[in-house]
Design a protein that fits this description.
95 residues; mainly beta; Ubiquitin-like (UB roll); 4-stranded antiparallel sheet; 8% helix; 37% strand; elongated
């Protein structure tokens, strides 16, 4: 099966309507609960598509993969109180 060609950049921005959306990276951070304690997780460069005119950013599949499994554990798939659990997405040990 052949893969469909990807759209060429720049894309039209859904907010401002200009053809100014390009591939980029954005910083991402979140507070997560792990073993009963809150931890701030900061990812320095998550792949995204960013409008150079209005600044709107959207995270695609590649960026979502980075967010879901930063450094071997998943925000949504690892039980909060499970030490040494495996990430549901990549299988790496969490601690």
């Amino acid at each position: 099966m052949t893969q469909a060609p990807t759209r060429r950049f720049p894309w039209r921005c859904g907010d401002c309507g200009k053809h100014s959306v390009l591939p980029s990276t954005i910083p991402w951070s979140s507070n997560m609960l792990r073993n009963g304690r809150h931890h701030k997780v900061e990812l320095g460069a998550v792949p995204a598509h960013v409008c150079s005119e209005c600044g709107r950013a959207s995270v695609g599949e590649e960026g979502a993969d980075v967010i879901e499994c930063p450094d071997g554990w998943s925000k949504s798939n690892v039980p909060h109180n499970a030490p040494n659990a495996n990430c549901g997405d990549c299988g790496k040990e969490t601690e």
